[in-house]
Amino acid sequence: xxxxxxxxxxxxxxxxRPADAxxxxxxxxxxxxxxxxxxGDSYDDKIAAIEALGALADGRxxxxxxxxxDGHLAALPDQSLVISENGAYRDALxxxxxxDVKADDLSDITINNRVRGVLDGVLGQLSLKSPDPDARRKxxxxxxxxxxxxxxEVLRAMLAGETDASVRSTVEAALGTLDLLSPDRSRRLAxxxxxxxxxxxxxxxxxxxxxxxxxxxxLRKAADKAIAxxxxxxxLINVGANLFQGLSLGSVLLLAAIGLAITFGVMGVINMxxxxxxxxxxxxxxxxxxxxxxxxxPTVIGLYLVVAVPIAFLATGLVGIAxxxxxxxxxxxxxxxxxxxxWGISLILQQVVxxxxxxxxxxVANPAWxxxxxxxxxxxTLTWNxxxxxLFCLAVLGILAAVLRYSRFGLQxxxxxxxxxxxxxxxxxxxxxxxxxxxLGSGIAGIAGxxxxxxxxxxxxxxxxxxxxxxxVVVFGGVGSLWGTLLGATSLGVxxxxxxxxxxxxxxxxLVLVFIILFIQKRPRGLFALKGRSIEG
Amino acid sequence: xxxxxxxxxxxxxxxxxxxxxxxxxLFLVAVPLLNLLPGEGSALHLPNYMIPLLGKYLCxxxxxxxLDLVWGYAGVLSLGHGAFFxxxxxAMGMYLMREIGTRGVYGNPLLPDFMVFLAWKDLPxxxxxxxxxxxxxxxxxxxxxxxxxxxxxxxxxxxxxxVYLSIITQVxxxxxxxxxxxxxxxFGGNNGxxxxxxxxxxxxxxxxxxxxxYVATVVALGLSLLLCRFxxxxxxxxxxxxxxxxxxxxxxxxxxxxxTKLFAFVLSAALAGLAGALYVPQVGIIxxxxxxxxxxxxxxxxxxxxxxxxxxxxxxxxxxVNAAKTWLTDAVPEAWLFFLGGLFIVVTILLPDGLMGxxxxxxxxxxxxxxxxxxxxx
Lengths: 537, 378
Fold this sequence. Notes:
The structure holds 2 protein chains of 2 kinds.
Chain A: H1 2-14, H2 18-24, H3 29-37, H4 43-56, H5 61-70, E1 73-75, E2 81-85, E3 88-91, E4 97-98, E5 107-108, H6 113-128, H7 133-146, H8 151-161, H9 165-179, H10 185-195, H11 201-213, H12 217-266, H13 274-295, H14 304-326, H15 335-357, E6 373-376, E7 380-383, H16 384-406, H17 408-418, H18 420-425, H19 430-452, H20 464-477, H21 482-503, H22 505-522
Antiparallel strand pairs in A: 1-2, 1-5, 2-3, 3-4, 6-7
Chain B: H1 4-9, H2 14-36, H3 50-73, H4 81-100, H5 113-117, H6 133-157, H7 162-181, E1 193-194, E2 198-199, E3 202-203, H8 207-233, H9 235-245, H10 247-252, H11 257-283, E4 285-286, H12 293-306, H13 312-331, H14 335-350, H15 354-377
Antiparallel strand pairs in B: 1-4, 2-3
Helix pairs in contact in B: 2-8, 3-8, 3-11, 3-12, 3-13, 4-6, 4-11, 6-11, 8-9, 8-11, 9-11, 12-13, 12-15
């Protein structure tokens, strides 16, 4: 929330508001007469006035022209012009707010398509000189896209005076696409050289079109090379995009599987209700969100997710402890019975949630700071929610590893897992450690549920979708090894997404499943198998 | 040397044969007679809709029997038996689809409706031959058996046991479910195979055909039960049980654990396929949801409820749980999952030997005073 406010403040500072532009210079004679002429009798007069305004290179011209384009410019009976802004009126010359204007007195300044075209061009040229680099970049791009005659010359002139590196590269690329059509052979050659550095599929299309009409062998060869290098870069971007999606899927798998790596990996308990712990976590997020909507001011709604994480951990952790004390402890050493009875628990939990919340999906909204994303080149977007989840799951894994390695509880947990009678002999209360370990695993599943509520549907069946996957990850990575789980989840995610473009989503998944079945034949204990006697237990 | 009948049919187990004859009389004689003889309004009349329903339960019972053979005797808990069931069902469904002929919505003599809808020109190669019932009947048993053979060989050879095996059988059925959901597979995708018209020329909609299918199911179940009893009473069956209880020791004694498990697994898969094939014409549809892992896990609870390692118990468990399901989902729909979930917990914690264990315990407490009296006299 703080970050958001900061962004708003920064934006208001950076933004050059119209009033500031007016205040910058005092009205000069040329500007005044040109603005007055905008209300000319014929469209030709108006066009002349617009072009005159553009030539003045006056900072005050842009808002007036923009208002004209938007149909917000009007004339008072005394021929002075006003700009209407949401029901208020400003003097077009001075920018002063006028209070005594009546809407009935105004006559609109009409424009037609020809005038609109000229306005577009002049506004574009004006924004080429805008102090905001972003506006300059956009204007250069728009100019190249529109192919206005003479645009190449304007851009070339602009390039000479441009210092901002990112604007320069955009302008160069824009100029390149224009120069491709230039009758001058050396211009075309230079343009191809510049465009070879692009990674835009549109540019590739333009080069291909050029090649169809081009006779000059040297140019053709250059274009060939440029197309090849663009294709190569696009492939790289594509692979990068797939890799990111694979990592994102891997992080989802990892989140679903970390809790299982504790309960199944460390304790050896087959918890088929693990998916339902994830589901309970997701519903906790939903409940916290509803509580925020109901009782807290809307400004803090974005924080609900942060609050939901510890609450979900505690809630599902407690459910886990109750489950361990009430049921699972009677079944230690009987894995198949554990499997069946926890499956029973999962059915009951599903029905409990369905009875309380109803069967339809619940809406869990992304908070504002998780929506949107960063646009990368080649039409590939890094979305915030995926990025946050990748970082979040790494954080969870790191904290868990630290707890296991450095805390007293972690030490006791490992001791009990390795040799229960010896741990008991050393005074560790093994029953308590069991309960807490199971609670920890379940709590982490709950946290995973909060994260997964951000990218999928929240319904009573949510957990069912993850149970096969998460067991696969744990078995593939190696039971009892956190790093195995990390590697297992990421590699399965990445392989799945890399297969997808060739095999389709469904077949890709099937291939991964078949691969796992075959892999387990070779290494029945997973990638990172524990060595020694404990594995036979 | 015991006689042939004693060895293969275990005729000296009087109690079993009494029950078997009783159940046979009930399902083969009483049910059809009650359906056919009394008039519509009579209190004793068994309505027509009950016949396919009972047939469905008996198919489930056959599936449970198949699972009990591998789980109860060979110690292999397969959570993917639904896959074998569904494969048998699909093989039957393919035959029934070809039987429709030109009576489909599009009237194509060669292609089933969904293929015409997908604008396919030719029948895929794996559909050839399914217009002949004997070939389909062969595939009903062969398709699940081959899958079980390949999968089992891979799994048992590398000594995947216990929970790991349960998980990868689940992965197997999950992968098959995803595969059958794809339209490109040529098995009707999401909708599966349905709109069947007749089987071997008999109209599937007529009550007589339904009764015939029901009777066929009863006979199949009875014969399968005898076959399983024969297997578990044989020397091979003893090796299976020994393997279940101490796999390492059996291996050291020189028996091939892989081959024994594989035999049990393949036989069980074939029986599951048979159950699926009998199921499809009675319910009128087969679709990929039959492959879902949840279905396969449910079969395990039928066996556990009845008592695993008893064969008869698996059948009783399947019938009891499914009857309860039909009744509960109708009477109190929300309660069904609570009941099923509770059953999983209660049975594993309080009734590890299931209904059969309960019966045995009751009989023992009844017999115990008499035994004590006899001892005193002796």
